[in-house]
Amino acid sequence: MESDMVVGHRVQSEVSAGGGVVAKLKLVVEKNYNVRKQNGENSLPIEFDPPFLDFGDGAVGSSLKKRVFLRSHFHRSIILDSIGGATEIPPLGSAFFDVAFLPRDEGSANVAINIRTSVGTFTYELSGRSSSNPYRIAPFVGTRLPFNGTIFKDVTLHNPFASTFRITEIMSSGGNLHIEMPYDIDGKVAGEHLEYWDIHPFQTKTICRSVIVGHTVENNTNFIRVEGSLLDDDGKDGVQHSIILPIPIEVNRRRGVFTTKDILDFGILRQGERSQYQMLSVYQYMLNGRLEFETLYVDKGDPTGIYMEFASTPPIAVLPGKNSQPGKPSDLVKVFFDASRITLDSKRPSARKIHGRIIALSRGGNYNVTIPFRVIVYQGDIISVGNDLALQESVRPPHKRSVRLHNALPFSVAIWNISISSDVRLFNKTTVIGVNEEQPVFLLKYIKRVPDTFGQAVLYVHTNVSIFRVYLWKYSGKVQVELFSVDQESFDFGLLEKNDPRTIRVSEIFYSYYPSNFLRSYLVFGADLEIPPHSAAFLDFELRLLVNASFLPSQMIIATEFEHRVFPVKFEVRKTYIAPGSLTSIPDRISFGKTHPGKVVYMNLQIFNSFTEDMKVTRLSTTSRDPRFFFEGFDPANPPVLRSGRLTNLGRIMFLPETPCSHEYCYLGLPLHTTDGQWFVHGLTLPPNLAEVDSYLYKRQRARFENLVKSGKYRVNTTVVIDTDRAKNIQIESTAEMVWPRLLTRNSVHFPLTALGNFTIVNLTLANPTSVPIVVQVIPLVIYPDADAAVEFFREHLMTPLTSEVEMNETLMFSLRDTELFTLKPDSPVPRLREELEAAIPQTVPRFTLSLLLKPHMKVRLRLGFLPSDYTLRSSLLLIRNNLTAIEPVVVYGRGARIGMRVEHMEARSKQPLLFEIRHDHLSDCNNPKRLMHKLSSTLTVRRPFLVLNSGEVPFTVVNMSISGVPCENRGFRILNCYPFRLQPNETYSLDVAYTPDFLTTTNEADLQLYMHMNGSSWLFPLAATVPEDMMARCHRALPRPPFENLMYYSCVTALIFCLVCVLACAYLEGDRAIACAIRQHHTVPRPVFDLNNIDARKSDGTSVSRDSRVKISGFASLLFSPSSYFNNEIIRLCRGDESPCRTSQPDTQEHLPATMRLIFTTC
Fold first, then answer.
1. How many angstroms separate the CA atoms of 663 and 669, rounded?
2. Which residues of 234-248 are buried (b: 16+ CB within 10 A; e: fewer)?
3. Under a CB-based contact definition with an 8 Å cutoff, are residues 951 and 902 in contact?
4. Which of 173, 174, 142, 135 is nearest to 157 (CA)?
5. At what angle do helices 675-683 and 690-710 cross, to 10 degrees?
6. Topology of 380-475 in CATH?
7. What's the pLDDT score for residue 1100?
8. TMEM131L fifth Ig-like domain location, by residue (predicted)?
9. CATH 2.60.40.10 assigned to 582-665+719-736
10. What is the C-alpha separation between 726 and 613, in angstroms, rounded?
11. Mean pLDDT of 436-455
């Protein structure tokens, strides 16, 4: 069973055979047969007629039934299973079954069914196509509801016939589907007599209401059948009609959130109209606690026409039910469809089907509910033909005429009612008008003369699609003629030169409904000119004086069938003996360039007067009377004078695009007090549905500009007219072009190749191109809510495409540096600008965005950073939200680059060193006798250039070089050109390194370290030098001595001699002093020996110490404190052979001395 096919089905596998005995035939499946492919091959045991079934075209909700015949080629019975009709085909017999096609949606349906029999399984193909239903039965979608839930759905039918359709029976298939009759409701809505079962011709009527109650769990399709008949002219039943409405129903016990409707069907809308709102209500089933909804967005559809208003202040709570029952429905939003926001491909009558779905997301995103929507938007109208609805003042009643209506719609319509003002008699008739056809619909009778104050009457044309308006007008037939000159009563061309053409523009404005024809025009040759109603015709009356022609007075006559107007033509011919002259604009053409609403542009108007006389300017104007152009500095009370032979500045011509502020010209700007402006302010807080808000605002603004471009009105052309007291109608062409402005001059930002691990900053300038303040919020894509939706929406609007790798996750890869998310300088204006914006809105703005109020013509510099994480080309978006263009996406590109450096084709930290291999031939100079005698001061040095290659993708600068941590020179290696250098990719640089061996080791190793500006670590390349071992001793001897060696030698010898002289002088002086002391001691009186016993005896007697004792103590003290004199005396005694007093001293004397005293004398 398929959703688009209904197949009769009855299983019967038993056959009764005499006497009530039941014989069971065994069902054996042997083979599989494809009826369509094997047809005509005589290989099928059963022949199917037709071999495949095609139902052709059908309508949604209308069933088609066809019969399939089967013929057996076997001489035994064949059992049929899973099919209706006869369950057994006798030998060589036949059977049949019926197949019904009931489409539920528009399009093609192809189904293959399997028919199981006792001889095999047969695959039988079915196909059909479906289109819209004449009864306007909408395509059916599945109805999903919880257990014990209830959904109400109105059943609406349209009568497509010219006769009344009477419903005779309505029935349902039962189960969870019930029917209610909306008698009272229908009677009040229709406003007619209570003929509940009659649907008038081409009328749409709600006939019943289906009630779906989920009292059992099922997943099935229920049906509603409507029986009816067409009434003939006598009101009797005629042709019978049967309509079947399939309603898929799914009832389950799963908990979740459900809607009270299965679809939001806005029906058929004319472009420019707005539908009635449909309420989106939801309820919950078996959920714990309340849910809150505040986020809704449109998915899988065009959201341009969808407009939603919250039913109450968000968040909206959805409460749970009690006793395992569904909760009470809560109204979320009122959903409108605004067809004025939909643009069709052409101006011709056309229709467009729009469908999609609306998703409501709960807080936290745990639960969501989806409901589809659909609508048909058409373009066209019902218009009257000719002057059928135009009444001229001279027409006298009674008067009658047939009114024709033209169908400028993309489909046929049936006009079944006409209602007009109460002072005109009602007319009611049904007329069908095909596409692009016109038919007489009703008879208009002019019974009574209308008053002079009568302007127009509205006629409502009731059709099977909608209600259209046509207008009944009264007109006089006169036109208003306006001359674009100072004199409105005549064509005054002023002073003229021969062969100097001069033009005056004339406008004829026709206010009546009836088109006016010019019967004759004396100066405009060709056919008569027809002016459409409420339109204007602009004519340029050009006067050219020929050289040899005579000058006769003339006049301009404008005549219609209702009036005749004459305008004299005046001019003055310049004398031939006077030098020719003219008024010339410099420049001769005024171009305002590219501009847009909100921007004021101006140009200086300078006129050179080549006439021989001065002229006074009487008027400055434009031929189109365009209010967007005005003249600054021109005072009619004090007009400027054009001096002869001089260039005169008449002031500035200002062009202000938004002055006439119609829908098509004001394609920019979201004033904050408007509804769209409030949506923009709401987006400053970065709500989850920001992508939907921005896409809606941007599409609406952009559609206006694109319509302006398609209509060609984006180019503004006008003519500036200068009138003086002599020369008249001096015309100067001026042009301007309306464009889509940008706050950022670049469409894309390309970061230079950035080495991995490094950071690149690009400075961008954000400028306000208008004369009014605008609100700006700059957001990188990585912090934009629902970045995926934003990328998908803006992908087709970008001037430069995005790459396959769009960065949406890494915050620092593409980052806005001028936000409060990063550390700002103390004097940064970013916080102050944000606070100014919050005060103006008022609204709290996230600090991790750059938000400010950009004043007129103000410029702001912002920094955008790029930190690569790999070597893949990445792209992202910088979204500039503003209330001028809604949003401005800027594509940013960046790619990480490799850093590479090679020295002699070797990578950094290679195991193979940069080798200085010193050979014997390099050391041949070691055998030089002069070098062996150290007569040569030069050293043995080997120099080798190393080629440094930038093998990476970015340029780099080597800022420092060192050898094993020492700048430029260490361990015998020295960099000769040791200064910074810069290398572009694939560029080389010769680095000269010299090595001076000391011949102490055969191998010397060091590290060459190169430091770049972009990282702190060094690029290390090992260096090595080798010396032949057998040459080490010889070359070491040949090394030149240090230049300071001789100076040091002679200095040391001189120092040693000086030291010897000093030592000898010191010895002499000390010997002289010792001899002098000895002689002096020899001639002095000997002092008595110090005896302590005398001191103790006198202390015991209590007597004082005698003078001798004092002398002895004094002598001993002198011995103690002047030992040198004592020793000198002893030396003198020894030299003379005298005995020392130490030897003659008695032992008993030392026994009474203290230990310290004994030591002194013993030493002595």
1. 12
2. eeeebeebebbbbbb
3. yes
4. 135
5. 130
6. Immunoglobulin-like (2.60.40)
7. 52
8. 950-1013
9. yes
10. 10
11. 78
pLDDT band at 888 (very low <50, low <70, confident <90, very high): very high
Percent of the chain with pLDDT over 70: 82
Q: Which two tokens stand for residue 590?
A: 């005024």
**Dist. CA 197–CA 226, nearest whole Å:** 11
Residue 973 has pLDDT above 80, yes or no: yes
Q: Which of 621, 642, 623 is nearest to 631 (CA)?
A: 621
812 φ/ψ sector (left φ>0, alpha ψ -120 to 50, else beta): alpha
Give, as one character, the DSSP assignment of residue 626.
-
Contact by Cβ (8 Å): 162, 134: no
How is domain 136-254 classified at the CATH fold level?
A: Immunoglobulin-like (2.60.40)
Beta-bridge partner residues of 229:
166, 240
Instruction: Say if residues 702 and 465 touch (Cβ distance below 8 Å).
Output: no
Tokens of 510: 């026709």
What average pLDDT does this structure show over 846-859?
90
Partnered with residue 211 across adjacent β-strands are 152, 178
Nearest to 591 by CA among 721, 733, 770: 733
Strand arrangement of the beta sheet that strand 256-259 belongs to: 256-259, 278-285, 330-337, 306-310
Distance CA 67, CA 772 (A): 75
- Per CATH, domain 256-379 is 2.40.50.100: no
Peptide bond preceding 842: is omega within 30 degrees of 0, i.e. cis?
yes
Predicted local distance difference test score (pLDDT) of residue 555: 77
Q: What's the average model confidence in pLDDT over 891-917?
A: 91
Residue in this structure with the two tokens 């949506």, named with its chain if needed: 679
DSSP letters, 687-722, are -TTHHHHHHHHHHHHHHHHHHHHHTTTTEEEEEEEE
Phi and psi torsions of 636, nearest 5°: -60, -30
CB 940 within 8 A of CB 916: no
> How is residue 809 written in tokens?
């996750």
Largest CA distance in the chain: 189
Residues of the chain with CATH 2.60.40.10: 32-131, 136-254, 256-379, 380-475, 480-573, 582-665+719-736, 742-897, 901-1041
Burial class (CB in 10 A: 0-12, 13-18, 19+), 937: exposed
Q: Which one is the CATH code of 742-897: 2.60.40.10, 3.40.630.10, 3.20.20.450, 3.30.70.940?
A: 2.60.40.10
Residue 909 CA to residue 912 CA, distance in Å, equals 9
Tokens 């005396």, located at residue: 1129
Average pLDDT over residues 1043-1049: 83
If one looks up domain 901-1041 in CATH, what number appears? 2.60.40.10
**CATH superfamily for domain 480-573:** Immunoglobulins (2.60.40.10)
Q: Is this prediction's pTM over 0.85?
A: no
Contact residues for 166 (Cβ-Cβ < 8 A; gap 6+): 197, 198, 199, 228, 229, 230, 231, 237
Tell me how far apart the alpha carbons of residues 170 and 552 are, in angstroms, rounded to a whole number. Answer: 88
Q: What is the CA radius of gyration of the chain?
A: 57
The listed range with the strongest mean pLDDT (136-150, 410-424, 794-808, 953-967) is 953-967
Shortest CA distance to 471 belongs to which of 413, 405, 529?
405
Give the sign of the dihedral formed by CA 509, CA 511, CA 512, CA 513: positive
Kindly list the distances between the CA atom of residue 479 and the CA atoms of 515, 521, 523, 533, in Å, as whole numbers in the listed order.
Answer: 11, 15, 18, 11
* Per-residue pLDDT at 162: 80
Read off the DSSP letter of residue 580. Answer: P
CA dihedral 48, 50, 52, 54 (to 10 degrees): -150
Write out the CATH class of domain 32-131. Answer: mainly beta
Residue 119 neighbours by CB under 8 Å, 6+ apart: 28, 30, 31, 45, 46, 74, 78
| b/e per residue 254-272 (b: at least 16 CB within 10 A) | eeebbbbbbbbbbbbbbbe
Q: How many CA atoms lie within 13 A of 674 on its CB side?
A: 8
